[in-house]
Amino acid sequence: MFESLSDRLEGIFKKLKSRGFLKEEDVEAALKEIRMALLEADVNFKVVKGFVEKVKIRAVGKEVVDSITPGQQVVKIVNDELIELMGGGNSKINLAPNPPTVIMLVGLHGSGKTTTSAKLAKTFKKEGRRPMLVALDTGRPAAIDQLKSLGTQIDVPVHATQPGDDPVSIYPQALKQANLEGRDILILDTAGRLHVDDELMKELEHLKNESNPKEILLVADAMTGQDAVNIAESFNARLDIQGVILTKMDGDARGGAALSIVSVTGKPIKFIGTGEKVDVLEPFHPERMASRILGMGDVVSLVEKAQEAVGLEDALKLEEKIKKDRFTYEDLVNQIKQIKKMGPLENILGMIPGMGKQLKGVNIDDRAFVKVEAIINSMTLKEKRNYVVLNGSRKKRIAAGSGTTVADVNKIVKQHHTMKKMLKKFKRGKGLNMPQFKF
């Protein structure tokens, strides 16, 4: 999402860092370019103005003049101010002292509320909580069916409603069910509505009064840019929201909403959606987002994703196999599955410092993993565990069974052999030179 802005800022900082001494006019010229870069990224004009003023006060002062590397110090100042602009730190969901905690999701049509409701429920479930979903978009039968389907998928109960039911009168029944089943989180998936529609906004106000939610979260589409900020202002004025969930952060938008919404509304971004799958909802960390914007990657999120995908028991088993030089094709498939759990490959690689620029223009196709899995799944147990037996006739059979070519099979054999050698070096402490995997 921030690719264009990152490229612009990288060019600006490159000029600054190449100078051993910075004059005030150098900083002024850089700030002018930063201002233009932010405006082009669809950041709110008033937000840009305030941001640049804050950076200027620090960048032309003693903090930079006395620095050994003034260019680097300006980058640090911009990083600090970006973090502050986006809220300063991670903002968690406030839980009620007496369960269930009621969370009400609101927003426009098509912003992703129903899918986000399920994502949020799955997030709580991972934390050991017992969520329940309530389908309050009773004007659209398809929305009720969609939530039921998602609930089944993540094994979370959905309070049944009928098309045409009054959303406000449904709540007491849903609360009763939640209490009977010992549910500690109640997520209300409300119908989408325009913020300028007074009647529909009044309905949300009545629902708020009836349910007394601990959190009202606006689900906003990041692709709408400045409109997302205006929508957030309107919903906040009517409902006093506690935070925002930005969806479609993996899209091609310029990212202005993420940089403007906190400053304009005074309410934090609590989560971001980075894909369509139900497990791609991430807590929003301003410091990590600032790091990504400035092209410095996001190693902390990468490590967290890896820890979540690879259990301690699996890691120990793999370590034992490496020690005994028994890394088989079965293990390779397991590693691929664990990588896929971490999310889209492009997002993962973008978290590695410096990798984003190297990948610019490169088409990263996650479907390449499907081909590898198909080839390995077409092998017999003996072939999976001992690549030495893979002769020409066996490779032809595997290629036919997986819908690939013998050349594709040979690539996997070669890459598996390379990985085994790499792991041997790792085992012996000789360092690690990662091979290039091309499917």
Q: Short summary of the structure?
A:
The protein is α/β, with parallel strands linked by helices and 439 residues long. The chain has 21 helices and eight strands.
Strand content: 5-15%
Total count of domains: 3
Helix content: 55-70%
Mean pLDDT, all residues: 80
Any low-confidence stretches, pLDDT <50, length ≥5?
430-439
N-to-C series of helices and strands: HHHHHEHEHEHEHEHEHEEHHHHHHHHHH
Kindly identify the CATH topology of the largest domain.
Answer: Rossmann fold
Most strands sheet: 8 strands, mixed
Radius of gyration: 26 Å
- Distance between the amino and carboxyl termini: 26 Å
Task: Record the strand order, biggest sheet.
Answer: 3-2-4-1-5-6-7-8
Mass-distribution shape: flat
Report the strand count.
Answer: 8
Which CATH class of the largest domain? Alpha Beta
CATH superfamily of the largest domain: P-loop containing nucleotide triphosphate hydrolases
Separate helix tally? 21
Indicate the structural class: alpha/beta
Overview of the molecule:
It contains 21 helices and 8 strands. The chain has helices at 3-17, 24-40, 45-59, 62-65, 70-85, 113-126, 141-154, 167-180, 198-211, 226-239, 256-265, 286-293, 299-309, 312-323, 329-341, 345-350, 355-358, 367-377, 381-385, 392-402, 406-428, and strands at residues 101-106, 131-136, 158-159, 185-190, 215-221, 243-247, 269-273, 281-283. The radius of gyration is 26 Å and the shape is flat. It has 3 domains: 3-85, Four Helix Bundle (Hemerythrin (Met), subunit A) (Up-down Bundle), CATH 1.20.120.140; 101-296, Rossmann fold; 302-428, Orthogonal Bundle (434 Repressor (Amino-terminal Domain)). The protein starts with a helix and ends in an 11-residue tail after the last helix. The chain has an 8-stranded mixed β-sheet, with helices on both faces. The protein is 57% helix and 9% strand. With 439 residues, the chain is of the alpha/beta class. α1 packs antiparallel against α5, α2 (24-40) packs antiparallel against α3 (45-59) and α6 packs parallel to α7 (141-154).
